[in-house]
Amino acid sequence: MSDLLKLAYDLIAKVVYNVVSWLLGFVKGFIQVFITGWADYSTIFKMYFPYFTFPIKILAILLALILIAIPVLCIVIIIRRIVLHVQLKAVDEDNTVLYKEIGRLNRQVLDLMDEKAKILNMKVSTVNGGPVIVEGSENTVSDMSSGYGTPVGIQNLGTGIIDPLADPTAMGGGAVMGAGGAMMGGGVGVVGGGIGEASIGEDALSAATAAAVSAVTAAKQQSEEMERNTVDRFPKLSVVDAKYADYERPEFDDTVDLEHFTENFRLFAASQMKLYYTPEILRRFVAGMASSKLLILEGISGTGKTSLPYSFSRYLNNPATIISVQPSYRDRTELIGYFNEFSKRFNETEFLRALYEANYREDPSLVVLDEMNLARIEYYFAEMLSVLELPDKNEWLLDLVPTAWPGDPVKLVSGKIRVPPTIWFVGTANNDDSTFTITDKVYDRAIPIEINERAEAFECELQPRCCVTCAHLEEMFAKAKEDHPITDSTLAKMLKLDSYLQTRFKLAFGNRIMKQMYDFIPVYVACGGTEIDGLDYIVARKVLKKFESMNVSFVRDEIKGLLQYMEKTFGKSNMQDSRSYLERIQNLY
Hints:
The chain is α/β, with parallel strands linked by helices. The chain is 52% helix and 11% strand.
């Protein structure tokens, strides 16, 4: 046995000796590497450093700094680990104390709940001097003063607490009711020392329940009715109602024709606003208003896209509403707003206010969607695009709220707002990397107008405003269609071009484009333009524009043939806009 102990001792001693030697060697090595070895490092550095060139000296200094940083970083990490360990240990101790405190508080809560139960039992413990013992769902009532101790089997469907304050006369000889308001009939109650049988039948309970529900429903209806009569759900639109309560109709000039109307606007913009536009741009703008309720002004920045509808609205003495489209626009609520169920108010926007105010006015109203392609137009403007396509203008309605309230604005119809025929929407669009491509769905419904250059400034006499009603503007459009219908020769050439495009490129004018063409060209001519130029613009912007969404690299020769066909059909000096557009498309491939 002694030999075994000696063996164990020698083995353990050797293991301890080796561990201690390893630790001492590690410490000694650490000291030798990071502390005492600096003298040797310095000697070696001084031996080589004087013979280095300047760039090599810089690299040598960087190497020395790195070698110095290594032990410093190791020491910082060790100290950081020690401090973190101490902090975690302190946090653990604090958590232990916190857990103990939480346990103590939980026990106090349980004690308080028991005390509350005892107090409730004490409050109901005497029925005319006798204690009441509440045990589960079966209650025992004893009248100690009179010696009665009759158990009463009452099934308490409420909270299990007996109400001793019930009126015994109203219950017909005594009753005991649960605090939950439900009791099984047929029991025996002791109230005021008397014993009587009381039973509440199902009919009585049903009648009481129906009466309570009826009372709650009536109170809710009365509250909602009062809310309808007092809450103003559309404060902005109500301000518009107040603004036009004493509205005086201005004097309108219903004698002007389209050519003078367009030219006078050009002079007004130049003389009063120092804005200059070519007659061609203004003819396209006015003819575009005759063709669609949505106009898109495209081009490079700084050419006056936003100022054109702004100055035109000033010319009509009805300033436009300018809406700055944000990239976050996703649906119609960004433009129209939404109803807040909590506050019972509609979150109104300037777009909604302009739409509502246009219902009061007889003159044309313009809403400018500035930078409209910063977000996807077919998302946030989709409902408006669909509404404007309806042939019956009485159906141009947008749902705002489900039902009408007495305090709603007067121009709302059963919670719907009407899109009046006197309003036009003008969007401005830049073509750069920060914007979305305008889809064919939007282009087909709109009239695009490119503004890529500024007009030359000119001097003219001061030109006054020209106030016209929308009805007179529509009359001028209708008169232009009568006076300047598309000629048969131009129509025949147009149909030939349509057939050529369908055969070679699978492109067609379409019914919508044809309708816009019949509206655009006569008004364009009435404003001072020519029929062939009006056709040229529509073909270039509405038909040939579709080449941009096609892979036409394989039909380069076909585009060349189309140019030759247009030159042969319309003449070499005509259709210049379409020809230049096709040449630009051809150069892209």
